[in-house]
Amino acid sequence: MYRMGKEELEELRRVIESKLLSRIGDDAPGHLREVSSFEEEWSAKTGVKYSICMSGGGTAALICGLAGMGIGPGDEVLVPAYTWMASATSVLAVGAIPVFVEVDETLAIDPEDVGAKISPQTQAIIPVHMCGRPANMERLTEIARKHSIQILEDACQADGGSYQGRRLGAWGHAGAFSFNYYKIIACGEGGALVTNNREIFERAFIYHDSGTVFRPGAGLFNTPIFVAQQYRASEIMGAVLRIQLQRLDGILADLRRIKKAFEVALNGVSGLKVAPNNDLDGDCGVVAAFQFQDEKSARGFAKASGVEGWLPIDSGKHVYSNWDPVLGKNFGHCDAVNPFLHPKNARLRQNYAPDMCPRTLDVLRRTVFININPDWSESEIDKRIAACNKAAKTVRTAAHV
Ligand SMILES: *Cc1c(COP(=O)(O)O)cnc(C)c1O
């Protein structure tokens, strides 16, 4: 969350004064239709036919996406080794097995390793646009087509980003977004699933709210209604998100402008190297990213005065080797619902080990991220770039000693 203020408060006041806080019954007089309107606006922004806004965050959106795509026991899903754990746990939530894939120097899933890890049981890939940095959707789309497998984009950290001019989330069969407190736009918690596919939409919608059966409009679905979860969004979330959406383009423009200033000013200074990017213009600009020969140089640069850099290897929960409940195969409240014990999954690859993706660990140790704040003044930007410039020279000197 970068920006929030009185516009959100005013929209919230309208919702509270309407006393109609649920999206249910939004044809009633005086109902503000915040959730439904946000869904229409998010579809328009993303360039897709269908959006489902939901509580339960990006995690729920990923789960509903996989359910919508028909993923379940017997299926393997390829997931990058650098992401928030939910990209992998959502696969388990629908009864399938996540298989970890290396990230390359762009910090996104490595298409080569995707190719190498596809098995006859692989049914889907979840590319993650980590830190707003687009995955190589062109290559991934080609591979997925060739093997007839589906793509669910995890765009939770990339609200509004794009790749080759098309919005992230709109490349795959479905895309998941998060609006939790830490994301580009936020309503505290919450998420959205987008898709162009009617079948995926219907199944995901029912999965997010099986109570649909008792509501007007249920008859418009071709998919018979099945029992699933309750991730319905409230009008309070919808109201905040509609205002946040109005801020999105401004936030992205400022993030991108400042990130570019860092990378343009610093690339090549004393051997400093900007991390490769699959689409510089579509990148959300959440971080400036630099890559080093080794961890020592990376740490030296990150720790230098005024740089405020961090190494993704230190981001703990975003590194697969720290996902203890996944590596330990501890899923659910009883064994009978644990996909690792499901007979249909017995033949699948479940051989997890903390060192199974060594190239990912290596890249995460040699990369330094600098968080961008879209509200920095020109002098704050200059000050920080100067600190990075100085640090680059020190690191280079240290490396030569
Ligand atoms: C935040 C995030 C999610 C889901 O987050 P929620 O907390 O459920 O909204 C999923 N994937 C990635 C990569 C994330 O960063």
What does this structure look like?
Helix 2 runs parallel beside helix 8 and helix 9 runs antiparallel to helix 12. The mean pLDDT is 96. Strand 2, helix 4 and strand 3 form a beta-alpha-beta unit. It is globular and about 70 Å long. It has 401 residues and is an alpha/beta fold. It is built from twelve helices and 13 strands. Bound molecules: pyridoxal-5'-phosphate.
User: Which ligands, by name, code or SMILES, are bound?
Assistant: pyridoxal-5'-phosphate
N- to C-terminal separation? 42 Å
Order of helices and strands: HHEHEHEHEHEEEEEHHEEHEHHEH
Biggest β-sheet description: 7 strands, mixed
Low-confidence stretches: none
Number of strands: 13
Tally of helical segments: 12
Kindly state the percentage of residues in helix. 25-40%
- What percent strand? 5-15%
From the spread of the alpha carbons, the general shape counts as globular
How confident overall, as mean pLDDT?
A: 96
Overall radius of gyration: 22 Å
Structural class: alpha/beta
> Strand order within the widest sheet?
1-9-8-5-4-2-3
Write the layout of secondary structure elements.
Blueprint: H1 6-18, H2 34-46, E1 50-54, H3 57-68, E2 76-80, H4 86-93, E3 97-101, H5 111-117, E4 122-125, H6 137-146, E5 150-154, E6 162-163, E7 166-167, E8 174-178, E9 191-195, H7 198-208, H8 235-266, E10 273-274, E11 287-291, H9 295-303, E12 309-310, H10 324-327, H11 358-366, E13 367-371, H12 378-400
Parallel strand pairs: 2-3, 2-4, 4-5, 5-8
Antiparallel strand pairs: 1-9, 6-7, 8-9, 10-11, 11-13, 12-13
Helix pairs in contact: 1-8, 2-8, 3-4, 3-7, 8-12, 9-12
The structure holds pyridoxal-5'-phosphate.
